[in-house]
């Protein structure tokens, strides 16, 4: 019987990949499997994430179960004058049992400060830098990472210049039910994710749903990558929001129910209504399956979510919407309901982190007029928000042998646009506006 279930899970996990064989992709590069070759009590897969104002969550895994969930930290290497204890979890999936997965929230922390820390009282020292208190702030945005030689190249490019927070719109490990690959992924990203906060949302590869056995899915994802959903009034780790330096960031769940009246829909309406543009002039949204996409890959997969939620984002003057899923880069103009609209969000597909499926090379022709730049290459994006009104978006290609230059554009916050910011004032109804 267990073998039958394994066979079933194997067949199920092949399905999404079969769906992608009909487009031509740049040859995938081999999987990189990353080992833990230190003592069992030593931390592995260390990563940090923002949780509330001035706090950071430190997450790691130990194979040994008597390691305490404690983080010692301070501002000087080797001197830990603060300590915090958190919690741990474990999970099993068919024959796999996870190590002890520790989550410890530390703080309050000073902004723009390097902290040195040690996990569980043994093993090497790590360090991270907290985000600044004021503009400018720089985000790295990259989706569909996986764990191949392409991934490694992307991570090296990301690390080569400074940034504050990494935002990931889904598809992390590509474990696809093979749980040891979650551990391997955690080890691959540790040198980067232990240095800067990584804020993620889920993609289809995080689902790992098996009918009847794991009907809700997301077992590994929720155990390993808990995000601050309770702090933003969300009951689900699949959608949440947070504020950082004048920016309100909303992480949506393409694989959680989003229909009108669903929990996610109601949570989003409530979250948008609470935004105070004088405190957070910028609003960004991340989700996995793109609402706008002129690549032939994954056409229409984000459409029902767009129909359900686009008007809410438009009414709240969201500045940018980032998606992954399509393994390529594409930037749209400001769009609302399939038309260019100066008060709509800029849509960007950034699913080009480097996973084993390769690139999505085929585009619809001719290019729709709302699509301004599209290219199937691996890379990452950077959004540098200079102040309350101006930001600079730049797409960085990993492989610079191609002739095209990387994409780069300045944008202005919708909250500072006199004609668009009217929508943000909830009290200024359209009838009143007509009278003006
Ligand atoms: C990332 O960059 C920092 C700062 O330049 C450097 O110290 C560190 O070794 C780099 N990490 C990796 C894994 O390359
Ligand atoms: C968006 O705003 C328009 C105009 O004020 C309003 O009619 C509509 O109901 C709003 N939609 C949503 C989903 O809030
Ligand atoms: C915001 O940044 C832009 C770009 O650096 C600059 O031109 C503008 O003057 C700045 N605005 C304010 C109010 O500082
Ligand atoms: Fe995906």
Automatic annotation (TrEMBL):
EC code: 3.1.3.2
Cross-referenced Pfam families: Metallophos, Metallophos_C, Pur_ac_phosph_N
Domain Calcineurin-like phosphoesterase: 139-329
CDD domains on file: MPP_PAPs
Co-factor requirement: Fe cation; Zn(2+)
Superkingdom assignment: Eukaryota
Keyword annotations: Glycoprotein, Hydrolase, Signal, Zinc
Signal sequence coordinates: 1-19
Residue ranges constituting the Purple acid phosphatase C-terminal domain according to the UniProt record: 344-404
Domain spans labelled Purple acid phosphatase N-terminal: 43-130
GO MF annotations in UniProt: acid phosphatase activity; metal ion binding
Coiled-coil residues: none
Enzyme superclass (EC): hydrolase
Alphabetical list of InterPro entries matching this protein: Calcineurin-like_PHP, Metallo-depent_PP-like, MPP_PAP, PAPs-like, PAPs_C, PAPs_N, Purple_acid_Pase-like_N
Reactions catalysed: a phosphate monoester + H2O = an alcohol + phosphate
Family under the similarity heading: Belongs to the metallophosphoesterase superfamily. Purple acid phosphatase family.
Protein name (Swiss-Prot/TrEMBL): Purple acid phosphatase
Species of the source: Cynara cardunculus var. scolymus
């Amino acid at each position: 019987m267990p073998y039958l279930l394994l066979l079933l899970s194997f067949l199920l996990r092949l399905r999404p990949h079969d769906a992608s064989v009909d487009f031509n992709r740049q040859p995938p590069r081999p999987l990189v499997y990353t080992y833990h070759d230190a003592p069992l009590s030593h931390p592995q897969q260390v990563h940090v994430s923002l949780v509330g104002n001035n706090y950071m969550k430190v997450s790691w895994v130990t194979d040994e179960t008597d390691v305490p969930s404690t983080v010692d930290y301070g501002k000087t290497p080797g001197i830990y004058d603060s300590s915090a204890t958190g919690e741990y979890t474990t999970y099993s999936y068919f024959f796999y049992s996870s190590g002890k997965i520790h989550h410890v929230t530390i703080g309050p922390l000073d902004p723009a400060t390097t902290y040195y820390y040690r996990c569980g009282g043994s093993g090497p020292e790590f360090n991270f830098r907290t985000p600044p208190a004021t503009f400018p702030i720089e985000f790295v945005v990259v989706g569909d990472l996986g764990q191949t030689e392409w991934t490694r190249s992307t991570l090296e490019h990301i690390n080569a210049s400074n940034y504050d927070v990494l935002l990931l719109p889904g598809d992390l490990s590509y474990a696809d039910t093979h749980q040891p690959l979650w551990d391997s992924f955690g080890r691959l990203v540790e040198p980067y994710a232990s240095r800067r906060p990584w804020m993620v949302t889920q993609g289809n590869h995080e689902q790992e749903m098996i009918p009847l056995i794991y009907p809700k899915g997301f077992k590994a994802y929720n155990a390993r990558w808990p995000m601050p959903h309770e702090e933003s009034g969300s009951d689900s780790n699949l959608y949440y929001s947070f504020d950082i330096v004048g920016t309100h960031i909303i992480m949506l769940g393409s694989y959680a129910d989003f229909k009108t009246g669903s929990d996610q829909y109601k949570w989003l309406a409530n979250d948008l209504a609470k935004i105070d543009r004088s405190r957070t002039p910028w609003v960004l949204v991340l989700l996995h399956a793109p609402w706008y996409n002129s690549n032939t890959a994954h056409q229409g997969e984000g459409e029902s979510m767009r129909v359900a939620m686009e008007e809410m984002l438009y009414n709240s003057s969201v500045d940018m919407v980032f998606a992954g899923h399509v393994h390529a880069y594409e930037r749209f103009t400001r769009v609302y309901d399939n038309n260019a609209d100066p008060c709509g969000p800029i849509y960007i597909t950034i699913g080009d982190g480097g996973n084993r499926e390769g690139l999505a090379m085929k585009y619809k022709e001719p290019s729709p007029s709302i699509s301004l730049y599209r290219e199937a290459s691996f890379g990452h994006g950077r959004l540098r928000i200079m102040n309350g009104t101006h930001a600079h978006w730049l797409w960085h290609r990993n492989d610079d042998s191609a002739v095209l230059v990387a994409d780069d554009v300045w944008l202005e916050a919708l909250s500072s646009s006199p004609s668009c910011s009217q929508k943000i004032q909830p009290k200024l109804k359209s009838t009143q506006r007509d009278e003006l």
